[in-house]
């Protein structure tokens, strides 16, 4: 590393710390000043976006997961970062759009929009014309936009793995319209395995890689009229569809029977019961997406993350096991679902629930899993 590179990295780290302090205090004006000062200090706009703002946002997620900041602080930090990005966009000047047109959008139901926004700004800096559609874009509206604007590619973002079935349908719809799709975000796995599984034309682990791939050009969709079962033949057993359709009944039944296994629930108030139901709903949702993808590891990763998040909030990890066992009983006629649940329960058994019962899932002093529903 040269002295100049070392100095640049030190400056970037310093501005990252300054932005983190401002964001944590909820001080929007200081946050804006930090970014403007970083640009004046000679740090390139792309580096400010990804190595300062992006780094701070990743830290926000880690701090929430560790229960060191509240949901309100997380939301406030994200809102400030959004406004800081807008300031950077205005400050860094207008860029010609001669490198092609890209539509950047989040999968319907995905409201973690900041990664997509960062990509959109990087693409603008690199000379692309960008249509940034933001969070939760319904597939039908996205396709209408593609027909109207004729972009060269779609960049689709999702952080929540439970949106993978929706992402699959959206990818297929874009390809049927003749537009190749590059995907990114935590939902697609750290190695892009679910991007390949769902037939995306490309995957990128970060904004720079996505911009490089788009600059090189994506190939035309190779299977523009593929159906879900073309990519995922195991869906023919209908387990995913049936579990998804019965989710409200499953959640209600498990929560009702959970009180028999966890005596402390008799003292839960309405809010605690609501949080418990939401946490059970997340377990069912991740079970369903594991059935959709045919990947047991996805369910295991969610449960591992859930265990860590609950432990950070003083909820014993063993509280998950009774819910898994009850779901297995309810789904005993579903071969793949039952196997997933039995294996997950067995992996977590052996840690007894404390004599006084577990702490309420999503108790009154902390957020329950419904606030993010995903690994950070």
Automatic annotation (TrEMBL):
One Pfam family recorded for the sequence: B12-binding_2
Transmembrane region(s): none
Disordered: region residues: 343-376
Biased composition (Low complexity): 354-363
Domain B12-binding: 99-225
InterPro entries associated with the record: Cbl-bd_cap, Cobalamin-bd, Cobalamin-bd_sf, Met_Synthase/Corrinoid, Meth_synthase_dom
Protein name in the entry: Cobalamin-dependent protein
Natural source organism: Pseudonocardia spirodelae
């Amino acid at each position: 590393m040269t002295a100049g590179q070392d100095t640049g990295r030190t400056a970037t780290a310093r501005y990252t710390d300054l932005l983190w302090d401002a964001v944590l205090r909820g001080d929007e004006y200081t946050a804006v000043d930090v970014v403007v000062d970083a640009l004046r200090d000679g740090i390139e706009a792309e580096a400010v976006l990804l190595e300062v703002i992006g780094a701070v946002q990743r830290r926000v997620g880690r701090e929430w997961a560790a229960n060191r900041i509240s949901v309100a602080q997380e939301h406030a930090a994200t809102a400030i970062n959004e406004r800081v990005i807008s300031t950077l966009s205005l400050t860094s000047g207008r860029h010609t759009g001669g490198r092609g047109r890209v539509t950047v959008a989040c999968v319907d139901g995905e409201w973690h929009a900041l990664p997509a926004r960062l990509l959109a700004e990087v693409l603008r800096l690199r000379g692309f014309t960008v249509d940034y559609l933001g969070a939760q874009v319904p597939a039908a509206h996205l396709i209408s936009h593609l027909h109207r604007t004729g972009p060269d590619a779609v960049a689709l973002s999702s952080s929540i793995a439970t949106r993978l079935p929706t992402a699959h349908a959206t990818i297929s719809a874009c390809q049927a319209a003749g537009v190749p799709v590059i995907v990114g975000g935590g939902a697609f796995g750290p190695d892009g395995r679910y991007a390949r599984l769902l037939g995306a034309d490309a995957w990128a682990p970060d904004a720079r890689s996505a911009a490089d791939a788009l600059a090189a050009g994506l190939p035309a969709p190779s299977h523009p009229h593929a159906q879900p079962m073309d990519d995922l033949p195991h869906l023919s057993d209908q387990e995913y569809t049936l579990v998804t359709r019965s989710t409200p009944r499953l959640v209600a039944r498990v929560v009702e029977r959970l009180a028999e296994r966890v005596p402390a629930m008799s003292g839960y108030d309405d809010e605690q019961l609501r949080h418990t139901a939401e946490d059970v709903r997340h377990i069912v949702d991740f079970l369903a997406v594991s059935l959709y993808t045919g990947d047991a590891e996805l369910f295991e990763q969610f449960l591992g993350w859930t265990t860590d998040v609950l432990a950070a909030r003083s909820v014993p990890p063993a509280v998950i096991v009774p819910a898994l066992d009850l779901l297995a009983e309810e789904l005993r006629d579903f071969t793949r679902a039952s196997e997933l649940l039995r294996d997950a329960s067995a992996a977590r058994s052996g840690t007894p629930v404390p004599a006084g019962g577990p702490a309420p899932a999503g108790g009154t002093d902390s957020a329950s899993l419904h606030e993010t529903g995903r690994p950070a």
